[in-house]
Amino acid sequence: MNPIVVEARNLPSHVGIIMDGNGRWAQMRNQDRVDGHREGSAAVRRVVRAARKLGLRALTLYAFSEQNWARPDEEVDALMVLLREFLLSERDEILDNGIRLNAIGNLGRLPGIVRAVLDPLRSESSEKTEMTLTLALSYGGREEIAQAAQELAVRVAQGKCKPEEVTADALRELMPSLRVGDPDLVIRTGGERRISNFLLYGLAYAELYFEDALWPDYGAEHLYAAIESYQQRERRFGLVGKAAAPLVDGVAKNDVRLAG
Ligand code: FPP
Q: Which residue lies with its CA nearest to atom 7 of ligand 1?
């Protein structure tokens, strides 16, 4: 089998991942759903390392949706503990590798045990520039759009902004998920083909990649395969032909060769 070669040119700058399939992974083994989430944490580690090695500028992981609060209390509590453990155990690696740890979503809903480790790491890593790792926590794409719209409505009501200044760009400016740029590639694992309220506004021209592997089984080679697929696509942004040259920001560092 030929090795997968991920070329350093034309890398997606911002990759988003919907990490799905933890529960099914556990059920297939007659284990508790929480065991699936624990294995899912290990996959997060692998993928963050792979993304950094590849030279991606931004990786956004859908770790907990606004809708996930409705899951059973034991599962929600276990996910919060896993999140805390992840942040504690990865702290040094994040800082040593120049990664800025960012979080988006309704962070006020997160329990103190998470905020106590999340907030210091966000500020300690705020000057890091190699890659931004964003955890979407208590996040919803519709909620993010509504919040930006509400903010503009307030500005209009206060006379700080004219109604005709409520534009697509003005909304975009107010969306924390897009500060690292629109996602170029969004991957969903676990075989389902839907977006589930992730990065809705930024998705307009993203390339989508659906992966059958369940998230706990996901690794560097899966990420490389998704990027290889992305590199073979022609992005047109609503244009035609040469006018639609891909947005490449020249950040690529190393070609990554995987033994097949
Ligand atoms: C979806 O799988 C996954 C989640 C709701 C949580 C994702 C959490 C992790 C990967 C681990 C902790 C996160 C970090 C950042 C350390 P599912 O439970 O919906 O799976 P199913 O569709 O098979 O039931």
A: 63
Residue 81 Cβ < 6 Å to ligand 1: no
Instruction: Over range 49-57, report the average pLDDT.
Output: 97
- pLDDT 10s digits, 101-153: 999 999 999 999 999 999 999 999 999 999 999 999 999 999 999 999 999 99
Based on the structure, what is the number of domains in the chain? 1
23 lines ligand 1 (CB under 6 A): yes
C-alpha to C-alpha distances, 216 to 19, 22, 46, 180, 193, nearest whole angstrom: 9, 6, 10, 26, 18
Our answer to whether residue 20 is catalytic in this structure is yes
Ligand 1 pocket check for 41: Cβ under 6 Å: yes
The reply to whether 2 belongs to the active site is no
Does 8 map to a domain?
Answer: no
203 in a structural domain:
yes
- Return the CATH number at 187: 3.40.1180.10
C-beta atoms surrounding 229 within 10 Å: 14
Question: Tens of pLDDT along 202-218?
Answer: 999 999 999 999 999 99
Tell me if 169 is assigned to some domain: no
